[in-house]
Structures are given as structure tokens and as C-alpha cells.
Known about the structure:
Elements: E1 5-8, H1 13-26, E2 31-35, H2 41-45, E3 49-51, H3 57-66, E4 71-74, H4 80-85, H5 87-106, E5 112-114, E6 117-118, H6 142-161, E7 164-166, E8 168-170, E9 172-174, H7 187-198, E10 200-203, E11 211-215, H8 216-228, E12 240-241, E13 245-247, H9 249-257, E14 264-267, H10 272-277, H11 286-292, H12 300-311
Parallel strand pairs: 1-2, 1-4, 2-3, 4-5, 5-7, 6-8, 8-12, 9-11, 10-14
Antiparallel strand pairs: 11-13
Helix pairs in contact: 1-8, 5-6, 7-9
The structure holds nicotinamide-adenine-dinucleotide (NAD).
Amino acid sequence: MEKSILIIGACGQIGTELTLALRETYGNDSVIASDIREGNENLMESGPFEILDATDYDALEEVVAYYEISEVYLMAAMLSATAEKFPMRAWNLNMNSLFNVLNLAKEKKIDKIFWPSSIAVFGPNTPKENTPQSTIMEPSTVYGISKQSGERWCDYYFHKFGVDVRSIRYPGLISWKTMPGGGTTDYAVEIYHKALAEKSYTCFLKADTELPMMFMDDAIKATLQLMDTDAENVKVRSSYNLSAMNFTPSQMAESIQKHITDFKISYEPDFRQAIADSWPSSINDQEARRDWGWKADFDLEKTTKEMLENLAP
Ligand SMILES: NC(=O)c1ccc[n+]([C@@H]2O[C@H](COP(=O)([O-])OP(=O)(O)OC[C@H]3O[C@@H](n4cnc5c(N)ncnc54)[C@H](O)[C@@H]3O)[C@@H](O)[C@H]2O)c1
């Protein structure tokens, strides 16, 4: 039977580009986008769209039956900075949406799931440099706690019920097609918009806060690659570490100054500094390289060039 894919949270920063990439690979009508709100023109005009609340099991089951869905990409979530403000709403959305999808697979109504985790699963006691796949994980944020719990449930559903669920711990993602949705690494997108519009940016993190980051094309490539891998080669069923580049806000500013020489950056750290301080500065992704041949294409210089070229008026 032909593959039929449902993306939940398709109008967000990742969902938008993921939907377009999947439509290009599998055909527009085989990829159903859904969200609680409408997305941008490209997304809405390129294929089927449904308004769907990920926490509503009955509505989800109905859409899955109607389109004979075989694979679900669950991208709906409340991100790190927003989740600190609304802890119970974040827990409810991040956990119940995942249970809904895992239970659909347990009931054999779908065959395969992609669910993203994050570097936020790590915490202040995790080794910060070259953070390994398996290590101390004591997340200190609402978002991190929900992602770590989600990982344990994915692993549990795989071992207990044979659910084919696959996951990546995305680092901070940089993209130009859609704005980020309330995370701690949002500065790494805002900075390019401000550099072009105002030639200056006030960063909400300190100059020397090093974090793992990735350009969106790499994140999409990794997601499609992991979902295409034969099931027996997917050895990690919690979530894979994934790495591309690490940099600080001041290094990012320097890379922009190579193109916009009079660009200026200043620093006014806010509550997001504490979140960033609890996260790793670099990630060891040897398992992803070994199991499904992962290799990133974009470093900071290439990312800056791509962002400035595409955002320029
Ligand atoms: N962007 C990043 O840097 C990053 C990094 C690590 C992990 N992630 C994870 O990747 C996933 C997608 O992130 P994103 O950056 O695209 O987020 P986003 O905030 O840009 O998009 C999330 C989408 O989910 C939708 N949504 C919210 N509540 C919903 C509900 N009840 N039902 C259906 N849809 C709902 C929103 O309308 C939004 O379009 C999330 O799980 C996030 O935790 C993102």
C-alpha cells in the first residue's frame, strides 16, 4: 500500500519545512498537514490540510482513519521558553499528544512515528562538552522534563508493544522560511533578521554562551534519513543525539560582520540565560553516524551565508 503521512503541528518552524520536503518526496496528496492554526501560503496551497488538536484522541483517530494514515510526524509541542511560563499547559500538550500517537500505533492504527526530542533533556549535571548519547540526564526545565519523559515512553512502547517510534534530540534550529516558536535558541534566527533590518541586535543570552545548533536543511535531512532507515538498524529507541555546529552569540556576530561590516551586537541576558546554562555546549552523535550514516552539511559560515542571502530584501 502507498505511504500516507500525517504531520501534526505542521505550521511551526520545523513542521512547515518538513511538510514541504515530504510532499516533494512522496507527492502532495500523500502528505496531510495538520495544526490548530493555518500555516503560510506555501504550506496551505501545496496539499491537504486539517485543523486538528493533537491532545484530542478521537479527532486524531478520525483523521487517521479518513486518510488511511500509515506514518505520523508529531511536531506539536510547547517550546522551552514558553513552557517555563505555562508549566501545566506544556506538560499537558507535550505528553498527551505523544501518548495519543503512541497509543494509535499500539492499537495498530498506524505503522511508524517520528517524535522530536531536544538537547533540553540534558541538565546542569550532564557533562557539557561532547555530551554522550547515554549520560546523566537531570533536566531542570519544564520542557526538558517533558522531553526526557517522552523519550522514556518511546523506548517503553518500542520494547513493550513493538511500536516503531523514532526520534532525534534536535539542537537549536536555524531557518529562514518560518520564525521560531518560543525556544531558547531563537536568538540565532532573530539576529539575522535584525542584522539586515537594523544592523544591530540585542541578544538575550551572554556573549560566551556556547550551544549546539543546526541549519534547518540538515535537520530535515536527518529526519528523513532516520525515517528511511531499516527498522533493525534503528538501535536507539529513546532519541538520537545529533550534532552539526556549536557557537556562541559573539562568534555568530563575527560571522555576520564578515558580510555586514557595521553590524553591532549588545547583550541583555534574561530568564533564558538560566535555561541555556543548563544545556550542553557540544554533542557527541557517534550513534547516529554509526546506525544511519548521519553527517551534517552546514557549518556556521555556510549557515550565515544562506540566511543572509534568503532574508535579504
Ligand atoms: N525549533 C527548535 O530549535 C527545536 C529544537 C529541539 C526540538 N524541537 C522540537 O521540534 C518540534 C517542533 O518544533 P518547532 O520549532 O517547529 O515548534 P513551533 O512552536 O514552531 O511549532 C509547533 C506547532 O505546533 C502547533 N500546535 C500547538 N499546539 C497544538 C495542538 N494542541 N495540536 C496541534 N498543533 C499544535 C502550533 O500551532 C505550531 O504550529 C517540537 O516537538 C519541539 O520541541 C524544536
